[in-house]
Fold these 2 entries.
Entry 1:
Amino acid sequence: MIRSSRWMLAAFGAVLLAGTAAQAQEWQPDRPINLIVPWGAGGSTDQVTRVTAPILAEALGVEVVVVNQPGASGAIGTQEVLAAPKDGYTWTANAIANNATYSVTGLLEGTDIDDWHIYLSVANVPVVSVPADSEFEDFGQLLEALKTRGPEITVATAGITSSGGTAVAALSDAGGFEYNMITYDGGGPAAIATASGEAMVTTQLAVEQTELIRGGRLRALAVLSDEPLVLEGVDPIPPITQWLPEMELAPDYFGIFIPQGVPEEVVATVDRIWEEKVMNSEELKTYAETFGAVFAPSFGAEARERAMPVVILEACSSVERGEAVNDPSTIGIDCETRTEVGQQ
């Protein structure tokens, strides 16, 4: 009789858990969701977010409003999301390496990757480009110029912690040169400024430069990858390892992030939509193929695992460059072993 009672209690508990799980899948927002892009319009984060937001809006049955709120290399908009009510109606979008390392760079104290539910969409690669009329015909020529007159070479980026900012810093480490960074409110504006001759070089992402490259306004010299980048309508862009074979590289993942602390049904519902809709989205695939990104949607534990190599690289590189305000150990990263604390 005791065994029977225990079995009945266990069964009843299982039913309750199943009911809770089912209920968790039924979040039905009753007003628009604010999706804060902490960078300017036209940049890599803005682009992919505006492709993904309509997919989510259709599945949720409410508008997903993309709001650009640039400043402090994305930290201002990110702080806005962290400070908002944890009701599921305020999200952000970014490169995950930024959200994970704002605390290391001192732009946003006390945060790390585990403050977020992670939904990745694409991986992006930086490209080194110059204006079409530049004196530099290939990256080798530019590298020599940077080594001999680096402070005279102006490099347009979206800020120190932006993809372009970390890209040129990594190039500087690998190539042993200095440079003069000019910052803009987004990767798109930085690329346009370079094409217009305001800067001599840009190291922003391929997706922010593709149309300018295709249109003959920018000359792409190298992609920060160990493989050439193939874009329709232009010659393959050679890999940076052709000149800097020992340069450390990691895919730069972008996506949408929901702060921890929101109701469980919000996360369960977005998990399901990401798996069913975003991971099978022809619109997102087309965007990636057209603009030189890698279609790579994931969420949850898998997304976090994919993100960590670039998070570790950016955190530890900021220490090596003397840009870190807080040691990466404060966010669980051991730079001596290039691993998360506690991992082998």
Entry 2:
Amino acid sequence: MSLLYSKTVLGLLTLQNHLVMSPMTRNRATDNIPNALMVEYYTQRATAGLIITEGTSPSPNGLGYPRIPGIFSPAQVAGWKRITDAVHAKGAKIFIQFMHCGRIAHPLNLPTGARVLAPSAVAAAGEMYTDAEGMKPHPVPQAMTEADIQSTITEFVQAAKNAVMAGFDGIELHSANGYLLEQFIRPNTNQRTDGYGGSIENRARFVLEVADAAIAAIGKDKVGIRLSPYGVFNDMPLYNAMETDYTYLAQQLNDRGLVYIHLVDHSPMGAPPVPDAIKATFRKLFKRSLILSGGYDAARAESDLIAGKCDLVAVGRPFLANPDLVARWSTGAAVKAPDMATFYTPGPKGYTDYPTLT
């Protein structure tokens, strides 16, 4: 039997295989509340060992995109509870990804009273889709005060407690892809001159304080993190000290004993590749589980697991278009291509209507 489809452990959990469903924004949460359609979507894909949910905001301020879910209200917690119950009944474990969008947002997508926040008042290049008025330029965000930083950490902590109440096995801190946590790490978006800006020790401080607070609230076996070294998504250019900075992060995260680091490589979608040396550095320095993602097929997933390059392999688009991906990969059946036109549109089309093997 192949390693990919054999049982494994993640912290205190036993997973039914080594395959992880990557977090994928799908914009189906009307009014930012998980619904019955989302229950169906996640249940269909619960043959994965681990599901990591779509990016979910820990606070009203973090809801940058239209129709993304939150986990800060009782209705949201109740909606997610229906999803975790259904996924657990099928044998999968499930972590919720906390995605605070920071500057990748638009006021038209935020509830009344919420603010577009970031480390510094630096707008991202490009535009943001809004249901109300279509595409709009990214606004200049408000630079966070130290009080904003502390209240945001408090929001992450409450969201972590809410996630446990909703039945999640853990949380993933989205510190990748140009969202708020990564906005603090990267020098182009963090131009602060206080204790949260300047050196990598200062730029990493917010991320590490969020991780520390989440661990204190729910335990290190329930906290993972996603990083995208060499990722350029959402106006995050490459810079010279990147390898050194992410090596520092690997060491710091290892010291905290998080259950996993999820390294994402966006080169299959056109970004610069994450050098093998960086992946090897994380493998060497981080002693708990390493998840790799980025353009995997079954053969490469098996090969990297056997070679010991990682503990788990995460895939996104193949799971999107093939709810029964585990069955298809393990039997060599054909894999369907996703319909990109329906990635972010409301309703079941291109979401819950992909066929399974008969």
